[in-house]
Amino acid sequence: MHSKREMGRDFGFTLWEVLVAMALSGFLLYSLVPHFASPVLPLKKRIDQGNIVQIQGAAQAYRVDVGAYPRLLTDLLDAPAGVAGWQGPYLRELPVNPWNPALGYSVDTLGRAKALR
Known about the structure:
This protein is mainly alpha-helical. Helices cover about 50% and strands about 5% of the residues. It is built from 3 helices and 2 strands, in the order αααββ. Strands 1-2 form a two-stranded antiparallel ribbon.
């Protein structure tokens, strides 16, 4: 027969064994997550830069036709009331903001576009 002390050792892990296992799994998680998550941010940046270039190009074409930059981004899709010379649409559709799709983009008075965050 085994004593109580010997029998208890066969049924589980010690606190040290659990802590070492948690430390190893934490280290693996810490080192592997950036490797798999890193492609997302550069992709969002490239999409955002492409959208900005597209909007700014459309704003330049709008300015050539109308004589001023658009007040609203939707002016690139539909002719605003009272604007002469509009020959659009200058965009097929409004680009989707990769950082926050609900917010979109804006155009300032110099035709520069930026993502709203």
